[in-house]
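Journal club side-thread
Mid-discussion, someone asked how the predicted structure for our own chain would compare to the paper's figures. Pasting it here so we can look after the session.
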Amino acid sequence: MKIYFDLHTHTVASGHGFSTLKENAEEAAKKGLKALGMSDHGPAMPGSAGAIYFGNFKAVRPNILGVDIYTGTEANIMDFNGRLDLDESILKKMDYVIASLHIPCIAPGTPARNTDALIRAMENPQVKIIGHPDDDRYPLEYERLIAAAARRKVALEVNNSSFCARSGRRNAEKNTARWLAVAKEYRLPVILGSDAHIWYDVGQLEKAEEMIRRAEYPPELVLNYSSEGLDYVLNREKE
């Protein structure tokens, strides 16, 4: 099926990205995407932009090269209470927030504590997506996580970059297959994300789609395939 949007992308502002917003938008237009999300890492990630960058999204036009642009962040979860690395006043200015666990920002805990961190991050109404819940470095209790995501209408991400050979994440294919099996029982809407850190990876979701096919996941529950899926993500806090 045709991909309508990609909300998990990074620019040079993340500190370890290699492309600009313009280059990412050009690639999105080339691939026929209708919408593109900006989700640079929050400031706790070494090298990433400070709060002032995220507070100036008013400078970004809502459409570039025919692609609708949505402003967000991949916020870093800082503790097992789900605290994020940007103030609420900044987060409220964004279209969406991805909340993720990253090694430079929080040391892995037990499966119960890692799961607590994600569930408590979901309590923030700005958090629309949980990023890459697939890494053995952060083992999770998937039944509990997915039940909470379904209750709070937060999308879990099938992250394309997790399946790349050079990814630092461990056993992502095995873990994604596990959690998709549980999510299918809950009929949980899921989102595919490229996690692009360079322009040519924008909209590259083939490996994530392969995981969806293997799991026989219902296409109507894959948010990227429709404008309604985009609305589901962006309007979560209004439910």
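Post-session note: Residues 86 and 111 are 25 Å apart (CA to CA).
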